[in-house]
From TrEMBL:
It comes from the Eukaryota. Pathway: Protein modification; protein glycosylation. Its cofactor is Mn(2+). The chain crosses the membrane at residues 12-29. PANTHER family: BETA-1,3-GALACTOSYLTRANSFERASE PVG3, BETA-1,3-N-ACETYLGLUCOSAMINYLTRANSFERASE. This is Hexosyltransferase. Belongs to the glycosyltransferase 31 family. Its main location: Golgi.
Length: 320
């Protein structure tokens, strides 16, 4: 090696060394400013209206911060880890609804992750939204996912000392193709018993008797005491397989549970098209619309309920 090359080399190393020191000094000076920049970034992300569930969803330890007199409802939407777009869509739908006198937590529920990319993507979602419940199970249809959902919650929620009792007065299982109007749901629940309640859209469709036979999978709800019963009882354990929502009705019948029942028909119904005995026209007195299988049906429903009417005017956008 030629001597001047060697000289150049050591000069280069020395200047690198000083440059790194310079960077360290700069970084420590700017640390405080950078922190505040991060905070600003967070603020910029939580622009949802103050009382919206979006903001609540993004806070950790959410139930602990609710006031003790508030009605607390959990809606678990059973879905699959890979359904990222669906979750994103539903977060918009529920994150833009604001509520008075109740807190409704909408969470996405699935079984163990199975792919490497899920471990990153789902973890990021949880860091950002904290609205995912991963149960100890393998994804399945009609093999007890519903049972796992309801019966796992007591263990998952009760050992946290900050959480009030019951953590939720009511727990719902909801479908990802149903649109729930959270304020209407909460208002319909407020006068009802908080013990031994089974609530939903009774099947068969023309029936109005909530004791015959069971509540439709579009979305049904039970009081917290029924979860604790399900967790301990042998009745569901002996009869786990089968169409989940019908089997759920059988457990309650066999266990003499759900003595308080509420049929929310026709505030809950299937989307009017195509008409069947389970459908109803969109109307103001709505808690849930089910079978929103296409974007078109979602849009028609969201338009009917004027969900974008409260969009703030701004110079930054124009939506005719
Ligand atoms: C949020 O809720 C509180 C208490 O329920 C109420 O006083 C306040 O006006 C609400 N804020 C908005 C922006 O709706
Ligand atoms: C789910 O994952 C947990 C933790 O990784 C593991 O202990 C458990 O056995 C898994 N359960 C099933 C049913 O695969
Ligand atoms: C709380 O945790 C302990 C130990 O992990 C467990 O034995 C107990 O059953 C849990 N209690 C509830 C109510 O989940
Ligand atoms: C939506 O807005 C229109 C026009 O303001 C109104 O007539 C209609 O009743 C609203 N629909 C609902 C479901 O509130």
């Amino acid at each position: 090696m030629k001597p001047n090359r060697l000289l150049d080399g050591s000069r280069f190393i020395v200047s690198c060394f000083f440059f790194i020191i310079f960077l360290c000094v700069l970084a420590s000076i700017n640390e405080i400013r950078f922190d505040s920049l991060m905070k600003f970034g967070q603020c910029a992300f939580s622009q949802a209206p103050q009382n919206s569930s979006a903001e609540r969803l993004s806070q950790t330890n959410t139930i602990a911060s609710s006031s003790p007199s508030e009605l607390r409802i959990l809606i678990g939407i059973l879905t699959l880890p890979d359904h990222y777009h669906k979750r994103h869509f539903l977060r918009m739908i529920y994150g833009t609804q604001s509520l008075v006198g109740a807190r409704v937590d909408v969470k996405f529920v699935f079984c163990n992750l199975t792919k490497e990319d899920q471990k990153v993507l789902v973890a990021l979602e949880i860091m950002r939204y904290d609205d995912i419940i991963i149960m100890n199970c393998k994804e399945n249809m009609n093999k007890g996912k519903t049972y796992t959902y309801f019966s796992s919650l007591p263990e998952m929620l009760l050992n946290d000392t900050n959480v009030p009792y019951p953590p939720y007065h009511y727990v719902m299982k909801g479908d990802d193709d149903a649109y729930f109007r959270l304020q209407s749901l909460a208002d319909s629940l407020r006068p009802l018993p908080r013990q031994d309640l089974y609530y939903g859209y009774v099947i068969p469709c023309p029936s109005m008797d909530p004791f015959v036979h069971y509540m439709s999978g579009m979305g049904y709800l039970v009081s917290w005491d029924i979860l604790e019963w399900l967790k301990d009882s042998d009745i569901p354990k002996k009869h786990l397989e089968g169409p989940e929502d019908r089997v759920f009705g059988d457990w309650l019948r066999d266990g003499h549970r759900g003595r308080n029942r509420y049929n929310a028909k026709w505030s809950m119904y299937n989307f009017p098209e195509p008409p069947t005995r389970c459908t109803h026209e969109l109307w103001p007195d709505t808690i849930a619309v089910h079978l929103l299988k296409t974007q078109e049906k979602w849009i028609q429903t969201l338009n009917y309920f004027n969900v974008t009417k409260s969009l703030k005017p701004s110079k930054l956008y124009h939506i005719p």
